[in-house]
UniProtKB/TrEMBL annotation:
This protein's UniProt keywords: Coiled coil
Domain of life of the source: Bacteria
Name of protein: Transposase IS401
UniProt keyword Coiled coil present: yes
Gene Ontology MF annotations: DNA binding; transposase activity
């Protein structure tokens, strides 16, 4: 289930770049974010989240990068599939073992 996004990756990238470019013209990063968010039509918190994620992706901030998060999601999905497969194999093995015991008793 994929989320639909109102803003394209190019718009997000440009907005984040504008925050860093205009940071010197404002008293704080938050005021730069508020100014730019109004111009592109998103909330200041949304733009702040984009900036924080960019900082994590470039190593300027601690946390999980976008690539690492995607890898974790993929590994978790694979892990779920393997657990399901193991459960199916365990049940099948038990079923056939019981069938073999029943056949020997007759």
């Amino acid at each position: 289930m994929k989320k639909t996004t109102k803003f394209s990756p190019e718009v997000r990238e440009r907005a984040v770049r504008m925050v860093f470019e205009q940071r010197a013209e404002h008293s704080s990063q938050w005021s730069a974010i508020e100014s730019i968010a109004g111009k592109i039509g998103c909330s200041a918190q949304t733009l702040c989240n984009w900036v924080r994620q960019f900082e994590r992706d470039t190593g300027q901030r601690d946390g999980v990068s976008t690539a690492e998060a995607a890898r974790i999601r993929e590994l978790e999905r694979e892990n779920r599939e393997l657990k399901k497969a193991n459960e199916i194999l365990r049940l099948a093995s038990a079923y056939f073992a019981q069938a073999e015991l029943d056949r020997r008793n007759k």
